[in-house]
Amino acid sequence: MSFMRRKKGLPVRASDVMSTPPVTAEETTSIEDVAKKMFENDVSSIMVVDTAGRLVGIVTEKDVVGAVAIGKIGSNIPVARFMKENPITVSPDTPLDEVLEKMRRFNIRHLPVVDKDGKPVGMVSQRDLLDVVLTLLKIIS
């Protein structure tokens, strides 16, 4: 549980709760290979990067299901055709309340964490936030 890595002090930041290492794929990776990578890494989203490793999009389970539904799996189509471009992101130092507010405001379940160069360093998901809530509940119980 990444939240348990946290040292003393507040506020809790994105880097304290994010899942690492980041699971990424290049824009030219096929949607089938991205689906395989999601399954193999037990994740529900993949960050899509350009050849320099900068974040350019995100693909979620919903996007993969959509590709299957319209008959595009098996066509070796690049993931760039299915990704959401310019995803909402945070930095590792973003306070957790801002992370939660962005996820709520934009109705997203996965929030990429990127460094100052736009390269992925981790992902905050609803599952990560549930880990934090569970830990806090155990502490106050």
From TrEMBL:
InterPro entries: CBS_dom, CBS_dom_sf, Diverse_CBS-Domain. SUPFAM superfamilies: CBS-domain pair. The keyword DNA damage does not apply. Pfam families: CBS (PF00571). Residues 1-10 have a biased composition (Basic residues). Residues 1-25 are annotated as: Disordered. Residues 18-79, 83-139 form the CBS domain. Keywords: CBS domain. The keyword Coiled coil does not apply. This is CBS domain-containing protein. It comes from Thermosphaera aggregans.
